[in-house]
Amino acid sequence: MAVIKPENVEDFYDIGEDLGRGHFGQVRQVCERATGTVWAAKFLKIRKTACSRLGLDRSSVEREVEVLQALQHPNIVILKDVFESRAEVVLILELVSGGELFDFIAEKENLLESEAIEFMKQILEGLGFMHSKNIAHFDLKPENIMLSDKVSPHPNIKLIDFGLAHHFHQGVEYKSTSGTPQYIAPEVINSEPLSTAADMWSIGVITYILLSGLSPFQGNTDEETLRNVIAMSYEFDSRYFSMTSSMAKDFIEKLLVKDPTDRMTAEECLLHPWIKPITRKQVAKRNRSSINMKNFKKFNARRKWKMSYNMVWMCNRLVRLKLLRGSSDQDMLQRQCESDVEDAESKPASLLRRRLSSSS
Ligand code: ATP
Predict the structure, then answer these.
(1) Ligand 1 centroid to 337 CA: how many Å?
(2) Which terminus of the chain, N or C, has less C-beta within 10 A?
(3) Which residues carry out catalysis?
């Protein structure tokens, strides 16, 4: 059972600037009064009643807390404390101040595969640790891969957002259709029993994008994207992959595999020659290959634009709804953003529930 303090976070922390927003939470920088240390506080609104239109089920917040409490790893955001007051649970998290990995990379003029691999290695180490604890993230995408700080030339990867994560228990099947279409594994779409292998599919998609600036299954609509995933319809277009090593393509091919039991695990990825070259020839190949920076920058700019567009759309819609209902608490309005929009739209499937979050 997750430990949640029935106290008001504002009695212990000064609430500072906005750090980001997701579907279900607003994240603010906070300063712990007793020590002066800065943290990130994720505010999650809890549904008041089962039929309430706003907020999250308490059980799903407890799941996120429980998962984070079980994960202490240098590449996974640390949970320090949890508070609950009125209809809100607040997670006090390690402050991750380096921004998103994709934004960091997009600022570079060029990047060798060997440099990109240093980040991939850390992602896989965090993931390998998580999977060794029988926990899957189920929402791996560029927005959830952040960097520890902005000052170090080699910042550490920090995986964030465990809102869809699941702790597997032996003999207990788990199904879910939540996720983001571009990054989602076929077994999620097909409502099949899931395993940690679904995360490995997402790693295949993320690596593909990182190298080429193309999203392998992206269609014109979410429905088309999901159809492309099911059909396994992707290729390495030579116009975008001319600078990519054959080892990198092999790495991706061993992840974008329909049968989850045939996909490489995080541990196996760490031993793949693209990540851990054995021969001098393999080392040389990696050092000669680079990521398609021109197209990657384009992909990232589009992704950021769509994220801002979606957020503005969601907030405008919520403000309109709230004004209609006569609410006046502006801060609360912003925190409630997404969950309200979802209900107003009455989307039936949770797959579509999450789609506005990203660049799909
Ligand atoms: P989603 O819609 O993807 O499910 P969410 O509501 O679960 O999102 P998070 O993804 O956890 O919320 O956080 C929203 C944003 O807040 C992140 O994209 C990131 O920019 C920022 N953020 C989250 N955690 C931290 C942190 N520990 N330090 C700094 N910024 C953070």
Answers:
(1) 14
(2) N
(3) 139
Residue nearest to atom 8 of ligand 1 (CA): 22
Residues with CB under 6 A from ligand 1: 19-25, 27, 40, 42, 77, 93-96, 143, 160-161, 163, 357
CATH superfamily to which 99-297 belongs: Transferase(Phosphotransferase) domain 1 (1.10.510.10)
9-94 topology per CATH: Phosphorylase Kinase; domain 1 (3.30.200)
**pLDDT in 10s for each residue of the chain, 360 residues:** 567 888 899 999 999 999 998 777 799 999 999 999 999 999 998 887 777 767 788 888 999 999 999 999 999 999 999 999 878 999 999 999 999 999 999 999 999 999 999 999 999 999 999 999 999 999 999 999 999 998 888 889 999 999 999 999 999 999 998 999 999 999 999 999 999 999 999 999 999 999 999 999 999 999 999 999 999 989 999 999 999 999 999 999 999 999 999 999 999 999 999 999 999 998 898 888 999 999 999 999 999 998 887 777 666 766 666 666 665 455 444 444 443 433 333 333 344 444 333 444
Of all protein residues, the one whose alpha carbon is nearest to atom 1 of ligand 1 is: 22
Q: State which ligand 1 atom lies nearest to the alpha carbon of 20.
A: 16
Amino acid at 7: E
Read off the pTM. 0.88
**Residue with tokens 């955001």, as numbered in its chain:** 77
Per-residue HEC secondary structure of 216-271 comes to CCCCCCHHHHHHHHHCCCCCCCHHHHCCCCHHHHHHHHCCCCCCHHHCCCHHHHHH
Residue 113 main-chain phi, psi, to 5 deg: -55, -40
